[in-house]
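Worked example 3. Consider a protein that binds zinc ion.
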Amino acid sequence: MQNFTTNAINLKSYNLSETDKIVVMYSKDKGIIKGVAKGAKKTTSKLGGRMDMLIANRLLLHQGKSLNTICQAQALNTFKNTRSDMDKLFYSIYCSEIVNSFGVENDPNSEEIYELFYKTLDSISKAENKVSLMLSVIKFQLKMMHIAGYSLELETCACCGGSLDKENIYFSAQNGGTVCKECRNHSLRTVKLHYKIRDFLNTLLQLDFDAKSRYDELATQKICDLCFGLLSQYVQQFSPKKIKSGQILEITR
Ligand SMILES: [Zn+2]
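Given these inputs, the predicted complex is written out as structure tokens:
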């Protein structure tokens, strides 16, 4: 059995014994991985707080038959401003649940997902206000769904493929994005979407995560709340696992 190194972000952990825990992580090279953190529950552990949730580490792992053992961990980012801010913490947990749901072991998209997840957690941690925090989460939702193969349709009707009339655009999570007036009549739970909101989402989907657009300045709390709600409905529609924090955020928004 061999050793390997990778960068990974801790998603969750559970107890293995009185002193050891198993940490579930999303890694840059192998997607979801699990590793035994020996002695991690002891205060004197050499792995220390690096095995806590939402920490990015450079790891050295020993590959076992069924489980990896974490030999060394060097913290790359603890996203420290997130740890003292309830909003930042909740939205970061929400993103990590999505990664844990759509991510798989030996994920062919691991590098792309890892980079997106890392950038999202970093920008949430550094966000100076709620709007910029939510913009990061909205971009994450759009791009994560794209990578996972469920890219949102925002240019034509997701049902009939027809073009959309600017004044009559509707959103249907069930149908995978925007729908036209006719298709709306046989879709469930549609919401009328102002074309400017559609343009806003479409721009964020097309641009790189770090790219700035005029929408960064135009975005308001109300617009962000609306978009977050639509996207969280969309994510949950296709998610293999239930996103528990999504429901909490829906209620508390
Ligand atoms: Zn249609």
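Take a moment to read the result before moving on. The radius of gyration is 20 Å. The longest helix spans residues 130-147.
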